[in-house]
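Q: Give me the 3D complex with FE2/S2 (inorganic) cluster.
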Amino acid sequence: MPNTDWLPAAELADVPPGTAAEAVVGDAIVALVNVNGDIHALDGMCAHQGGPLGRGKLEGCTLTCPWHGWQYDAMTGQQLLSQHIRQRRYPVRIEGGTILVRLSDG
Ligand code: FES
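A: Here is the predicted complex, encoded as structure tokens.
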């Protein structure tokens, strides 16, 4: 059964602007990114070979996988070289300084 709850992923203070962070949310590994104060959440396992995107480097809105350098638009999850590859995005909400993520819209 899909989990439709909002689950705590991290404290907002732990993901300052211009950074990415890895979080385990429920049964998912999530990459949290802070692009100019806006938090986005992507599937944290790179579509290439499962590299940890949350430990990647964020420059502007480009998130670079630390393993082999695949790059994604951190806001949309779109891989920058292939239109056919897009990381899943999760809805995000901030509540009382905590980043909440919903794993499913189900
Ligand atoms: S696992 Fe991310 S670029 Fe290879």
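A quick observation: The radius of gyration is 13 Å.
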